[in-house]
Fold this sequence. Notes:
By secondary structure, this protein is mainly alpha-helical. 83% of the residues lie in helices and 0% in strands. The protein is flat and about 40 Å long.
Amino acid sequence: xxxxxxxxxxxxxxxxxxxxxxxxxxxxxxxxxxxxxxxxxxxxxxxxxxxxxxxxxxxxxxxxxxxxxxxxxxxxxxxxxxxxxxxxxxxxxxxxxxxxx
Length: 101
């Protein structure tokens, strides 16, 4: 992520409400996914693993934001757990196939 994007996200985060924070986290996940794909194409394992770590950090925040008393949140939890599993596989196998899932 460029310095400019970091500054933009920081500004948005400081001004966001709870719902907007969730949207920002999703945007960050998509950005880090692109970074992981680019790193894989460039065969840069360190950058690839770093991007996946950042995605997992975002997914952890999304998981922590769930209100599990609602059925939708329970469904999202299962989806987030699946995503985490795919990220672990992607990290181990150094490929973009699992990232696509």
